[in-house]
């Protein structure tokens, strides 16, 4: 039997595109963050609020990934920020090649930060590098405080955890959610992860997230 | 479901190697890390389906999962991580750093024996 040792990365085609994306973004002095969460965690609301609150201070562009519709890109464009919608037609994650095409349609020279809002899914997107500077995982309190323990990969790989919809916690008896458990479980997997409890709806806690984001610009 | 994308890449990489090697591939060994979220049954099913009509048709796929490792910050020991309840197997501390997860690798291809006359 002829056995041939190969030792080749199976996702090397995706990684090659991710490297091209990273080079393109560096060339335009853009920082790029890959935002990953379950559907309905509030990623788009968070981006809309971030863009509006930082208007005049930070120039932001967005790549939206969804299985169907351009609803999210239209919500972003309503803020006057540029947004490119990728419709995956069923695929559960964005690939680096799709992001490469979208990046070429964004006015990168006029931007400082590109957010990639990945398809809503806590599992699949975590395996595909897009050329980003870091992943940001969003967890809304309604999803439950057991998610870092149940879906460890994305919490282990992310630079930031945004715990969204904390305004719901203020309403007693509505939701059982132990923020300290989430922090402990996430930090057990990832000592360096920055954790910001926020409400994209009321604006609570958003200032700390903006400070982190501005700190990233200094590194560009 | 991301396994379909992984399987498509696997078919492409094996087909390239098979063309370069000039034989019929019958078995492949691949490995992946714990954070790749690979379900063996789903990946094998997707591979079988996507292999039809390619040099990979009918191949057997063997998948090895490489354990995720961590280094304890207290006793410096390197240990295999159990993601369900992570602590150092040496001293029991939960102060450690995860080491890089193994990438998805095509390790080996076995080709059909060619009997020379």
What distance lies between the first and last C-alpha atoms of chain B, to the nearest angstrom? 46 Å
Helix run count of chain A: 8
What about the largest sheet of chain A?
7 strands, parallel
Question: How much beta of chain A, percentage-wise?
Answer: 15-25%
Question: How many E strands of chain A?
Answer: 8
CATH 2nd-level architecture of chain A: 3-Layer(aba) Sandwich
Give the largest interface pair and sizes: A-B, 33 and 35 residues
Mean pLDDT of chain A: 95
> Element order, helices and strands of chain A?
EHEHEHEHEEHHEHEH
Return residue spans of chain B where pLDDT drops below 50 for at least 5 consecutive residues. none
Give the name of the CATH architecture of one domain in chain B: 2-Layer Sandwich
CATH class of one domain in chain B: Alpha Beta
Shape assignment of chain A: globular
Q: What fraction of residues of chain B sit in β-strands?
A: 25-35%
User: SSE order of chain B in H/E notation?
Assistant: HEHEEEEE
Number of strands of chain B: 6
Structural class of chain A: alpha/beta
CATH fold descriptor of chain A: Rossmann fold
**Overall 3D form of chain B:** elongated
The CATH topology assignment of one domain in chain B is: hypothetical protein PF0899 fold
Q: Which superfamily, in CATH terms, is the homologous superfamily of chain A? A: P-loop containing nucleotide triphosphate hydrolases
């Amino acid at each position: 039997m002829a056995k041939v040792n190969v030792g080749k990365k199976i996702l090397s085609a995706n990684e090659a595109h991710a490297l091209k994306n990273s080079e393109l973004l560096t060339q335009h002095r853009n920082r790029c963050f890959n935002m990953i969460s379950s559907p309905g965690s509030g990623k788009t609301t968070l981006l809309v609020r971030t863009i509006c609150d930082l208007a005049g201070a930070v120039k932001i562009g967005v790549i939206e990934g969804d299985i169907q519709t351009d609803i999210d890109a239209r919500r972003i464009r309503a803020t006057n920020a540029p947004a490119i919608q990728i419709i995956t037609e069923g695929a559960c994650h964005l690939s680096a090649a799709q992001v490469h095409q979208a990046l070429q349609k964004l006015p990168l020279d006029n931007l400082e930060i590109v957010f990639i809002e990945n398809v809503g899914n806590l599992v699949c997107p975590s395996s595909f590098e897009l050329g980003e500077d870091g992943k940001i995982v969003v967890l809304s309190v309604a999803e439950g405080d057991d998610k870092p323990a149940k879906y460890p990969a994305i919490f282990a790989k992310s630079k930031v955890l945004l715990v969204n919809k904390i305004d719901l916690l203020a309403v007693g008896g509505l939701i059982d959610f132990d923020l300290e458990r989430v922090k402990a479980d996430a930090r057990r997997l990832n000592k360096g992860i920055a954790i910001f409890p926020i409400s994209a709806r009321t604006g609570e806690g958003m200032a700390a997230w903006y400070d982190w984001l501005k700190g990233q610009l200094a590194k560009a | 479901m991301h396994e379909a994308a992984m399987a498509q890449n696997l078919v492409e990489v094996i087909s390239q190697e098979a063309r370069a090697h000039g034989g019929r591939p019958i078995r492949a060994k691949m490995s992946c890390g714990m954070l790749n979220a690979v379900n063996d049954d789903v990946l094998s099913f997707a591979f079988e389906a996507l292999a039809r009509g390619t040099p990979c048709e009918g191949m057997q796929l063997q998948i090895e999962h490489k354990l995720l490792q961590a280094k304890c910050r207290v006793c410096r020991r390197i240990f295999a991580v159990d993601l369900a309840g992570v602590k150092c197997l040496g001293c029991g501390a939960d102060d450690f750093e995860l080491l890089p997860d193994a990438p998805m690798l095509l390790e080996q291809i076995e080709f059909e024996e060619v009997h020379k006359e």
